[in-house]
Amino acid sequence: MNTDHSAIFDRITVSLCRDMEAVFTEMANKITKDEPEREEKLRTVQCFRNVSIYFLTGKRAEEKIEYLEKHLAQDAQEERLLEKSKPRTDISCGVCGKMMNFSLKHLWHNDGPIKVMMMYECPSGHLPRRAFFHDGSEYKPKPFQ
Hints:
By secondary structure, the protein is an alpha+beta fold. It folds into two domains: 83 residues; 60 residues, no CATH class. Helix content is 52%, strand content 13%. The protein contains two helices and three strands, in the order ααβββ. It is elongated. The relative contact order is 0.10.
């Protein structure tokens, strides 16, 4: 996970640098060829671009450690929640009444606090499947609008 979060952070940093570079490129493009002291103005724009990107990357490097620590702590908390959430054994099929089989569990990030959703399937293949959260509440799908 660490490398995933690191790669995401780095992609955002590269995008920010490219955006900043585009601003300075646009500035440089506004300097006309017949403008007095054109070369000096272009060098000045280039210098400010380089310094700005230098400070931006430095700031991002400082923020990266905090970002990674925050996300790794969140990942660990989610992993603990997944591990401690045990599937129920009393879920029955709404069609035939047979006890349903636990099929999978995953994190539910939809609304509010993160929950663990556990899915159950009928051994006879009846639908619908059922899903419950780790707190015991049943998932009720919302109709499409």
